[in-house]
Amino acid sequence: MTLPIFRVLAVFALLWAGDTARAADRVAFGIDWLAEAEYGGYYQAVAQGIYARHGLEVTIRQGGPQVNQAQLLMGGRLDFSIAGNSFLALNFARENLPFVAVAAMFQKDPSVILAHPGMGNDSFVALKGQPIMIGADTRIGWWNFVKQKFGYTDDQIRPYAFSLAPFLADRRAVQQGYLGSEPFLIRQQGGFDPVVLLLSDAGFSGYASLIVTSQDLIGRNPGLVQRFVDATAEGWRSYLESDPSAGNALIKQANPEMTDALLDYGREALRSRGIVESGDVQTLGIGAMTDERWHDFFDSMVQAGLYPANLDYKRAYTLRFVHKAAPVLP
Predict the structure, then answer these.
(1) Using one digit for the tens of pLDDT, what is the confidence trace for 115-125?
(2) Nearest 5 degrees, angle CA 311-CA 220-CA 49?
(3) Which one of 37, 87, 222, 310 is most buried, counting C-beta atoms within 10 A?
(4) What is the rounded (10 degree) CA torsion for 284, 287, 291, 295?
């Protein structure tokens, strides 16, 4: 007996839907801190179904002070992770580890130095010789840049315990921070706006929030890597240029300490300071990286004595998966 055409079509539709569901690739993605606006694009891509439309079922795993996402990536427990800065990608190359950066979601590093107003610590030059609270990662990261450019010394370093209490208790205190969080919390808890010195304003050319994966995954499934990069770029565009409420809801679910006010502040900081959408993104699209900028950063760090001049820095990244997304319109 011949089936009516509508029943035939229905059967094909069900088969297609089943194939589509089975085709979704599961991806474990590690962020390098607790959920906040600095990860809004990733959560937006989950909440808005952007990853799903690219055939991906993405699980975001939070980081924190006791979580080493690089080790989890190397151990195969993550498919992708965030490298907070360009140093981490270069360190993979220096140690001959088969992991590379495939996109840079932040064109500017949101790292800042914070100081109290009215104390004369209102510029990078003025902070030469002043005690500054920084963490261990910073000491092997952007601290080398300010040492080279402004003559800072390791004698200035004071321990940073990821708490604002010491800073708020001492008007002479200076500490590290992130553009989208600590300035807001200082205003909220201390009742004043701190001096905020953005590292990129001083010429720090490193990328931030880089997506890192293994050479093995790139070799086995380059299409998955491409889809993840493309969907992430789309998620960031949605979070910054459209309604961010879906992504923010997931962030608050993952990190209940997040408030709407802090999320709004963090998102606006990303937007107003061009952390995601600036520089090469204007012509190459979100996630852009260039050989020229990697060379500039590497060369400055060689001068700082952090890397040997003969290191093949190009093993730290690949441009294979970027410059595919639409550029930012003026």
Answers:
(1) 999 999 999 99
(2) 105
(3) 37
(4) 130
Cβ atoms of 44 and 238 closer than 8 Å: yes
- Per-residue pLDDT, averaged over 223-233, amounts to 98
Q: Are 232 and 179 within one domain?
A: no
pLDDT > 90: percent of the chain: 84
Whether the Cβ atoms of residue 31 and residue 82 lie closer than 8 Å to each other? yes
Within-domain flag for 323: no
Structural Rg of the chain based on CA atoms: 22
Model pTM? 0.90
Q: Which two tokens stand for residue 126?
A: 């003025």
Question: Does 6 map to a domain?
Answer: no
Cα torsion 78, 250, 329, 200 to 10°: value is: -70
- Report residue 326's pLDDT band, with 50, 70 and 90 as the boundaries: low
**Do 94 and 47 share a structural domain?**
yes
* Closest by Cα among 243, 209, 211 to 48: 243
Task: Judge contact between 73 and 99, C-beta under 8 A.
Answer: yes
pLDDT band at 19 (very low <50, low <70, confident <90, very high): very low
Boundaries of domain holding 222: 23-109+206-316
Q: Which residues pair with 27 in a beta bridge?
A: 58
* 150 within domain boundaries: yes
pLDDT of 137 strictly over 90: no
Pick the closest to residue 104 from 301, 290, 302, 311 (CA basis).
290
For residues 103 and 210, membership in a common domain is answered with yes
Average pLDDT, the chain: 92
Contact 108, 278 (CB under 8 A): yes
The CATH number linked to 161 is 3.40.190.10
Across the strands, what pairs with 103? Answer: 211
The CA–CA distances, whole Å, from 138 to 147, 206, 299 equal 12, 13, 19
